[in-house]
């Protein structure tokens, strides 16, 4: 039985975290640099067709489309140890670059490539028995990942309206920034993601930096270190999709459990144990330790503090030899001790799942996905920077020069404001109001008699 996922990586960031993802995946499923299977575990092959197409006997090709508006990053991927895995036709790049300009990625340069990309994507989709959906790795700060990435999402949406759309979106931050117009690109992208994505995992460079710096004690973290963290999370989130398991075994089930309101599908992700590369195997970890770590703000890959909001829903994926009873008990105790941080109008809003295969170098690990109202801190940060520049119409000519209208900025800004107030509304919503509402309804019924 299929249930395949087509993976698309766009822009420099997308291709870098994407190739890290395929590196990790190939390690876990025992596939070497040229696509040959070298393992001996049935579980590695049982659902391998979710992400790989078996081209020949025991030879696997990632269902992956690599997209960029300039050749550089994709050339680097080609030359890397996993470069031989990908289908050469699935690497599509322009010669111009989007120059960190969302409008170039979405309207001009990107629009010229989009039909070619859609052809390849369509062919990948036709290769599937029963396609469950798409996942896109991109950043929201640049031009290609954000502009062309969101263009692809909306085009794929049009063509496959009933398939799931998940995105791994790297949100820009002033601490780790290479461009001044990042807030523009990010708000324009979120404007698209609110409407067209089903699940968005927010990864935030600022939080990744803090983790490398404070937890892993790296003095000068580079993008390689950040991407290593991202690939841990991507591998963890997709565990249930790739290995036999009970809960959230596909994207749609994950969405049903995690998204109480369609627009509020932006998740905070976390991972535990966080240990520096190389000394992971020396630490003994226990379920209580992992549980405590994963709810800790320091382990979140988004720079907002869950204690400043409330959880709507949570999913936790444990990997390795774990007693499920112990996990359930731990989760229950977290929920009891911290009940103020969980909305009371969604009972049992923590879901747990388990996979026997631990990640490389660790005995057990856990990936955390939280739908929390505190994600608005992240959006507030970007939005404030956006407004500061937009009030003065700074840098706008780069966008209007590509045919954009100022109106589009205004719309994006107000859509972002709406999203923030929706999160706030559900953070404040308690049970009392609903009880009050039910009383009213009862009285009305009584009057009618």
From TrEMBL:
The keyword GTP-binding applies. It is found in: Cytoplasm, Cytoskeleton. The keyword Glycoprotein does not apply. It comes from the Eukaryota. Residues 48-245 form the Tubulin/FtsZ GTPase domain. Pfam families: Tubulin (PF00091), Tubulin_C (PF03953). Belongs to the tubulin family. This is Tubulin beta chain.
């Amino acid at each position: 039985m299929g249930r395949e996922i087509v993976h698309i990586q766009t822009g420099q960031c997308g291709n870098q975290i994407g190739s890290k993802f395929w590196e990790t995946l190939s390690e876990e499923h025992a596939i070497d640099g040229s696509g040959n299977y070298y393992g001996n575990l049935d579980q590695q092959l049982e659902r391998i067709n979710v992400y790989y197409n078996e081209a020949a006997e025991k030879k696997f090709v990632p269902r992956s489309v690599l997209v960029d508006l300039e050749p550089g990053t994709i050339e680097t991927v080609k030359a890397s140890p996993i470069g031989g895995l990908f289908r050469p036709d699935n690497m599509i790049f322009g010669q111009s670059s989007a120059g960190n300009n969302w409008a170039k990625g979405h309207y001009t340069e990107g629009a010229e490539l989009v039909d070619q990309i859609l052809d390849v994507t369509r062919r990948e989709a036709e290769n599937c028995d029963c396609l469950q959906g798409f996942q896109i790795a991109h950043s929201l700060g640049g031009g290609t990942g954000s502009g062309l990435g969101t263009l692809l999402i909306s085009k794929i949406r049009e063509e496959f309206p009933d398939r799931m759309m998940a995105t791994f979106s790297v949100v820009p931050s002033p601490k780790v920034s290479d461009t001044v117009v990042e807030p523009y690109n990010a708000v324009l992208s979120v404007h698209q993601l609110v409407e067209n994505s089903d699940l968005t995992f927010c990864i935030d460079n600022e939080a990744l930096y803090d983790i490398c710096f404070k937890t892993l004690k790296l003095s000068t973290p580079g993008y390689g270190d950040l991407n290593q963290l991202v690939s841990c999370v991507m591998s963890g989130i997709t565990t249930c999709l790739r290995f036999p398991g009970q809960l959230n075994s596909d994207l749609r089930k994950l969405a049903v459990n995690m998204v109480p309101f369609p627009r509020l599908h932006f998740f905070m992700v976390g991972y535990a144990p966080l240990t520096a590369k190389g000394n992971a195997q020396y630490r003994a970890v226990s379920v209580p330790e992992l549980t405590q770590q994963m709810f800790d703000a320091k382990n979140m890959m988004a720079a907002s503090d869950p204690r400043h909001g409330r959880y709507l829903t949570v999913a936790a994926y444990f990997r390795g030899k774990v007693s499920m009873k112990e996990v359930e008990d731990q989760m229950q105790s977290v929920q009891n001790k911290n009940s103020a941080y969980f909305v009371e109008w969604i009972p049992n809003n923590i879901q747990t799942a388990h996979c026997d295969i631990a990640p490389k170098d660790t005995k057990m690990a856990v990936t955390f996905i939280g739908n929390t109202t505190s994600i608005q801190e992240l959006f507030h940060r970007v939005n404030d920077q956006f407004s500061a520049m937009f009030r003065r119409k700074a840098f706008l000519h780069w966008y209007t020069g590509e045919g954009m209208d100022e109106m589009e900025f205004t719309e994006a800004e107000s859509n972002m404001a709406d999203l923030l107030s929706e999160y706030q509304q559900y953070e404040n919503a308690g049970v009392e109001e609903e009880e009050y509402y039910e009383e009213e309804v009862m009285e009305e019924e009584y009057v009618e008699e």
